[in-house]
Amino acid sequence: MDKLLYGAAYYDEYMPYERCEKDAEMMVKAGMNVVRIAESTWGTCEPHDGVFDFSHVEHVCDVMEKHGISVIVGTPTYAVPTWLARKYPEIIAETADGPGRYGTRQNMDITNPIYLSYANRVIRKLLEVTAHRKCVIGFQIDNETKYYGVAGRHVQEGFISWLKEKFHGDVEEMNAAFGLDYWSNRVNSWEDFPDVRGTINWSLAAEFDRYRRQLVTDFLGWQASVVREYKREDQFITHNLDFGWRDYSYGVQPDCEHNKVAQHLTVAGCDIYHPSQNELTGEEIAFGGDIIRSLKNDNYLVLETEAQGYPWWTPYPGQLYLQAMSHVASGAGMVEYWHWHSIHNSFETYWKGVLSHDLEENAVYREASLVGNTWKRLGDHLAGLKKKNKAAILVSNSAYTALSLFRIDAVSGDSGTLNYNDVLRPIYNSLFHMNAECDIIFKNNPRLEEYDLLVVPALYAVPDRTVERIRKSVENGGILVTTFKTAFSDENMKVWADLQPHGLTEVCGASYQTFAFLTGESRLSMFAELLTPNDAGGEKTEVLMKYDNPAWSGYAAAVYHRYGKGAAFYLGAMPDREKLEEILARAVREAGIELPPAFVPRESADSAENWVKKTPEALAAHTVAVRKGVNRLGKTVTFYLNYSAWTQEGVHAGADGVNLIDGAAVKNGDKIVLAPWALAVVES
What residues make up the domain containing 670? Predict the structure, then answer.
């Protein structure tokens, strides 16, 4: 991957008339050099059982090869054809809601042997006609794969085998680990094992989700192994990992373990969808990129992001360019839009592509052309950007599952709404807006102890070995920021039977035995751990915040404590944004991480020229992000990205260089002025 890749998903099968040649010409004009094809077209590629028609695939490859456009081939296994569902209805996933019905995509049981047999056949047939093609540079296996709620017979039987292996066939060991004596849920023989869908034991439920996430890893690992039989040495294997969803990409994906899937890929990939217009903050682009880049500590592919998308995502002028550069600033080696053309019928008619339904040039296409041709011009200056951050956030699928079963604000009769991502994202967003760049890692990351600053939000379910790694990182000089709900239970969601937070009371210089919901006015979140400082190891614990409720005024809400060569910040409740950023800024300073100078709006707060009302909240949310990396030439590249509707002013804090956007010389300390939704890229 010696150049930036730029393009879109392309579906010749969906076009209202033949225009592949014209589309390729328009792509070349726009500076695009890659398309992704085939991942959703099983029913077209195999219209009848054993009857294959890859004419669309071969036609696109012929045209793209002629025009010098690379092709990524997606295996078409995430949407099954009608004939397969008719012949074998059992391939449709049975979930907690009962048997599924044909219609939507991703409705299959990825463990069903019949489905796997047919999937294997169509993958191999597709590879036979594409793997040798000069234009094909890589393969995407499946599409945004998750376990789709599968809970039928194959999955239940597999889960019992999983448990037998985990507990060495000892049913009593399992009962003890999951606390199954409660409400007579204990299993006295494997033959008595009940349908997991009815369980009220969240340890067992969490283990079932862990097993189903492993099914995703195994499924994608199997597909990768098939592709390896056909691919050339110079072709990559990737997958478009996606994230938790709240009308856009948001937080950790609950149904797929990114770090495990990445082991089967040669290049990590993802789909990132984000708010636009007045809601464009850059947070989702950076968050998704920081997770995916950290999987292999290397460049990654954005296989899907929006060009127009739904109407509330239609970008303002300048935003498409800003968004594309934002992906590169996080280390992306490719940006592809979903999709090239707007589809004229069915479910995603209003999820618009680069081209609108008239398929002619438009404002979005013209701005995409600016992106593509800028990237062609800048070449090595932006490709292969490497980042080495001193800070990391530790994330966990197990913690997500735990805090979805025991939601933070849950009460009797109300399951609550707040989960793991409601703790993770505010912390990440604050670091992002402070311009404290970070990696986002999982607990098995070998570099965990190497970071100067380690942020651990709500790590509810955690094995002792990970607690010990966190402790060691502080003892050896690292700075830790961690929060309520951390180290509350072991990896089986069985609560530790000692002072909380388990294994970290000396590190944090505080413990708690009681937690409560706050009432009345407070700068803190609803949930609160009532912390008692302990001055462990002779080091006095500093109280950073107290509760304003008179009943809890004797307890700390947040503390700071020196431990070994390092220090820890423990938040017993979530502060408001201002206080959170104050605490995080202190942690960043203590870790020796230097932050760039902040930008400030040039206009007054009541300027009539602004696109959005400039409230204090808007000023806090819409800022200039400063992102850095080292390019293929060994030079530092600094991105100044204005995610706001007003002109921002700041200074370049770095070695002398040149603004790659306009070619102007930039010296250390020079003023940088950014128009609304604009950017500067300084190569030093």
Answer: 600-683
